[in-house]
Specification:
Among the domains are: about 80 residues, Herpes Virus-1 (2-Layer Sandwich); about 110 residues, no CATH class; about 160 residues, Jelly Rolls, CATH 2.60.120.920. The chain starts with about 25 loop residues before the first strand and ends in a 6-residue tail after the last strand. A seven-stranded antiparallel beta sheet has the order 12-13-24-15-20-21-22, covered by helices on one side. A six-stranded antiparallel beta sheet has the order 14-23-16-17-18-19, with no helix packed on it. It is about 35% helix and about 20% strand.
Length: about 550
């Protein structure tokens, strides 16, 4: 069957329910046609079965019959409509607004008619005199959006003051005093800006990806550190718990042994007493029996055996003293303390090793040193030279006190350095923030210093009030550890591998510099030894 001469419209082959070309059409008993899916769904939602077109009621749900001829015609119509609706315009081209059916490519747009025309429909504008006066331009899409709403003129200028597109008439009114440029010129400026943004965005994305990686790596490292600390802590606490349990068991055993010794002594005395009681009871019975004997001969013969009573102890001086437990608990606790101290020493050694891994290489900055200070060429040693040198003015220099800081500063993370203080009687060590007053002020955390001070009276952490610390004999090398993000400054006796003091809860908002003061020396040469920045030796 051929359908080349079909002239019916799409409406002749449309389902009255979905209003689209039939898809798998079926017929009802009343002669009306529907898509099978449409009529089935329609009846599924009804209480009564009726025709959607003529409202004919059916007693039972009708059997639907496929309309073969209509189905074939619907396929042909659907194909014809699809072909008809396909435009002849590429995606980047402007379609003709006049074409019906197949749209042709527009060749001109009229700024008076607000319409785009193909070559065929443009013909009146080229032929009719009145239409020839209309302004024709290259094809433009959405012409109504390109026209000034106030003046019905083409938006062909750009106001740089208000950053809006305007027409020529706008420049003579509201935008009279504003600088305006052609759209093309502003387009080129904005395109250049866009190009710059386009070039910057990938870099910004890459930087943020890198930051994500840094954060992820930090979290991963923190997780590893946490797991390691938990493992070390678990071992330490297990060992400590073992020590406490062992001490408890030994204490219990000592008390039990004393109790058992007392109980054995009491048992032995009781047995001896019971034996004497038995012997005395037997003698009493013999005496009683003899006292009732009237035979003089037997009495006298038996009485002879009563002259020697069984041997007995003088029990008036015998007593069982309860055991004394005084000192037992203290001796056990002393032993426990000794064991715990040994474990604490191991822990301190582990702690020092853990902070030593954050060693940084620092050197003293001569531009900050007080004129009396003498620095080594490598910037690793400093001592009081005794003579005030003439030096250039420098806002970073300490002019009043013999202080000096390093070239290097730190504003995040963790860092550690060690300083030899051997043969010195007075010194300051620690860190200072960048904005400290270098002319002179009290050295405390409040003024930006976190320092340990030593003199003949002992060690002091300089705070308000000061924190006095036990004087450590033979203190030769001090380790300084800073955790910037956690607000922590710790000091260690490196040789003894002992923690000295920690300042916690510090607030750091700017770079920190390692801070040194070797102290003045007297005329006798005391305290003339230098402070020496030493390399970390973790095998000490």
């Amino acid at each position: 069957m051929a359908f080349a001469n079909i002239c019916w419209s799409k409406e002749n082959f449309s389902c009255s329910i979905c209003l689209d070309v039939f898809n798998n059409p079926v017929s009802t008993a009343c002669g009306h046609n529907f898509c099978r899916t449409c009529i089935t769904k329609f009846w599924d939602e009804q209480v009564q079965y009726k025709c959607p077109v003529c409202n004919k009621l059916f007693n039972t749900r009708p059997d639907l019959q496929v309309n073969t001829i209509l189905s074939e015609l619907a396929v042909q119509v659907r194909t014809t409509v699809r072909v008809k609706e396909q435009p002849c315009v590429e995606s980047a081209e402007v379609p003709c607004d006049v074409c019906t059916g197949t749209q042709q490519k527009a060749v001109k747009s009229c700024l008076v008619c607000f319409t785009s025309y193909c070559q065929t429909h443009l013909e009146p504008h080229q032929r009719v005199a009145r239409l020839q006066k209309h302004r024709l331009v290259e094809p433009m899409d959405r012409l109504e959006d390109r026209m000034c709403k106030k003046h019905d003129r083409l938006l062909e200028l750009f106001c740089q003051t208000e950053q809006v597109c305007v027409c020529q008439f706008c420049t003579e009114g509201d935008h009279r005093s504003h600088p305006v440029v052609p759209l093309k010129e502003e387009y080129e400026v904005k395109t250049a800006q866009l190009g710059k943004i386009e070039a910057e965005v990938p870099q910004m994305i890459q930087e943020r990806k890198q930051k994500i990686k840094e954060i992820t790596d930090t979290v991963e490292l923190s997780s590893k550190d946490a797991n390691r600390e938990i493992a070390i802590g678990g071992q330490v606490f297990t060992a400590l718990i073992g020590c406490v349990e062992k001490c408890r068991d030994e204490f219990n055993q000592a008390v039990q042994e004393k109790l058992k010794s007392t109980e054995k002594q009491a048992d032995d005395l009781i047995k001896e007493l019971e034996q004497e009681i038995e012997d005395l009871t037997n003698r009493s019975s013999e005496v009683k029996r003899l006292s009732h004997t009237e035979d003089h001969l037997h009495f006298l013969q038996a009485f002879r055996s009563l002259k020697d009573p069984p041997p007995t102890r003088d029990w008036t001086t015998v007593e069982v003293r309860p055991p004394s437990y005084v000192g037992t608990l203290w001796r056990s606790l002393d032993q426990l303390e000794e064991t715990l101290n040994m474990e604490m020493e191991k822990l301190r050694d582990t702690e020092l090793k853990s902070v030593q891994q954050y060693e940084v290489c620092v050197s003293l900055d001569p531009d900050t040193a007080h004129p009396r200070l003498t620095l080594s060429e490598d910037g690793k040693q400093v001592h009081d030279g005794g003579v005030k040198k003439v030096l250039p003015d420098n806002p970073k220099r300490f002019p009043w006190y013999i202080h000096v800081v390093t070239r290097q500063s730190f504003y995040s993370g963790r860092f550690y350095f060690e300083v030899q203080v051997k043969d010195k009687t007075t010194w300051y060590l620690g860190v200072a923030r960048e904005s400290i007053n270098r002319i002179g002020e009290i050295v405390t955390p409040e003024t930006g210093y976190w320092t340990l001070y030593c003199d003949k009276n002992g060690l002091v952490f300089l705070d308000d009030p000061v924190v006095r610390l036990p004087l450590r004999a033979e203190l030769q090398k001090v380790g300084v550890f800073v955790d910037y993000d956690e607000g922590l400054v710790s000091f260690y006796d490196v040789e003894a591998r002992v923690h000295i003091y920690s300042a916690t809860g510090c607030t750091f908002r700017e770079p920190l510099y390692p801070f040194f003061c070797p102290g003045s020396h007297d005329y006798g040469g005391n305290n003339s030894a230098p402070l020496i920045i030493s390399p970390v030796n973790q095998t000490d």
